């Protein structure tokens, strides 16, 4: 498949398509000035991005939606050109909360439907509008998880036309199989959004998902910030890796562009997050070069099997996904 800036979508198992590169829109709500997400999404769409990855829990879907609508109204894109992914947060897993939560996202975006709606984590929290519920001792309050019941509520949202495709995020093989083997399954997950980059290439999960016709969407495809409150700092900064540096020099590209190209060449979608206009454009500029088989192999050889995003604060949750091998 030849990938170009205009045409780089991958087919999904339900007949829809997903652009292989998207813009991640997460920003710490306490530290991100108003308007930042709006400007980033506008710049991204102007640069050629057609895939926007967002979430209710990012607290900026109103800005993201306004940017999408403004780029539609000025003629830059049509609604059908844009692929928006929204996410169901941990406090909204009970079936009766699923549709109202999706409708909240649609209301924030001011759109009639989203292209993909995914279960953000397999870990249910105490239901309600407190997104990170804790008890008096500061311990997270969990909720009994029934992933199949949550999935059935999502299927109803798809049947109602509120979402075109359904997927998951941070699911391991066992959790995917719970859904895939569910009696009466109507709509299978088309994608699984997980951490994926040259230091964490996910070979086993990738192979399993390929067999099941599930597209892997790689978050943190450039590594992550070095915020010690949630990032595993035992892992060295990936973009300074000597192998990536030498391949980047050869192609007159940045190590970030090489890391992104590596994933899209193996059919893994990427959603690098940036609010910096120069970097947003740079991250999209990965369609004018190609990595050789030898370079792909060398980058695959960098796998350290170490996560940057471990989410250890939830490691005692019965459905914490990262205890399993994959």
Automatic annotation (TrEMBL):
Entry annotation: catalytic residues: 58 (proton donor)
Gene3D superfamilies (UniProt xref): NADP-dependent oxidoreductase domain
Organism superkingdom: Eukaryota
Coiled-coil residue spans: none
Residue intervals of the NADP-dependent oxidoreductase domain: 21-303
Site-annotated residues for Lowers pKa of active site Tyr: 87
Stored PROSITE patterns: ALDOKETO_REDUCTASE_1, ALDOKETO_REDUCTASE_2, ALDOKETO_REDUCTASE_3
Pfam family, any one: Aldo_ket_red
Biological process, per Gene Ontology: bile acid biosynthetic process
GO molecular-function terms, A-Z: Delta4-3-oxosteroid 5beta-reductase activity
Similarity comment text for this entry: Belongs to the aldo/keto reductase family.
Name of this chain's protein: NADP-dependent oxidoreductase domain-containing protein
High-level lineage: Eukaryota, Metazoa, Chordata, Craniata, Vertebrata
